[in-house]
Specification:
By secondary structure, the chain is mostly helical. It is built from nine helices and no strands. α4 crosses α5 (110-142) and α5 (110-142) packs across α6. This is RNA polymerase sigma-70 factor.
């Protein structure tokens, strides 16, 4: 997922605090301040780490990953559970973070900054899946066929939700959608029934699907 760096479990790196430019006597804060204020020392080390990472230092990028990978993975796991895409999502979070290093101002800790990226990444995925799953449940109901009246109790919720969403479609679009997905008719058969050109039927079916996607996303 990451183009220039492959992160492997157990692949250790040397701490960046020993790199040139990050030792005592460098930066705006004095060594005395760093020694007497642990928080200031941490901020100084964090700034040095980020500056090196911005410059493309591979060891600095790797250290950020190794220090925070467990945090990012744990948060994603709590949100999504056991997910086949979890490894990819971890890589996506760090890819986005490294691409946005120039926008990291240092006002918050790196861990806080990574949490924001993780939350945004997972939120978008959860929302997309929620909408997709609802649409799939609705479409599945309309594809049950003429035996829908004998639908099993487990299908009732999907049926009710599908019908509620369908009720918001424009009547002409709803008609085409039901004939095609619920009744299982072909476009030509529908064209013959409503006495409209085949191209009109296809266009209305496309518009119906588009409206349904919009209704699901707004709901």
């Amino acid at each position: 997922m990451l183009e220039s760096i492959e992160f492997l479990p157990g692949d250790s790196c040397v701490g960046v605090t020993s790199f040139p430019g990050s030792g005592p006597g460098n930066g705006a804060e004095s060594a005395d301040e760093a020694n007497t204020d642990p928080a200031a020392s941490e901020r100084q080390a964090q700034r040095a780490l980020v500056e090196l990472a911005r410059a493309g230092n591979e060891r600095a990028l790797r250290q950020i990953y190794e220090q925070h990978e467990h945090q990012v993975r744990g948060h994603l796991f709590r949100l999504l559970g056991r997910d086949s895409e979890l490894d990819d999502l971890v890589q996506i979070v760090f890819s986005r973070a490294f691409a946005a290093l120039d926008r990291f101002e240092g006002k918050a800790a790196i861990s806080t900054w990574l949490y924001r990226i993780t939350v945004n990444t997972s939120h978008n995925l959860i929302r997309q899946r929620f909408r997709r799953d609802r649409m799939q449940r609705a479409v599945q109901w309309f594809e049950f066929g003429r035996g829908a009246d004998r639908v099993a109790p487990s299908k009732v919720d999907a049926r009710d939700e599908a019908q509620r969403i369908l009720a918001h479609l424009q009547p002409d679009l709803r008609q085409i959608f039901v004939l095609y997905h619920h009744e299982g008719l072909t476009l030509q058969e529908i064209s013959d029934i409503i006495e409209r050109p085949l191209s009109t039927v296809g266009d209305r079916l496309t518009r119906a699907r588009k409206q349904l996607r919009e209704l699901v996303s707004q709901d």
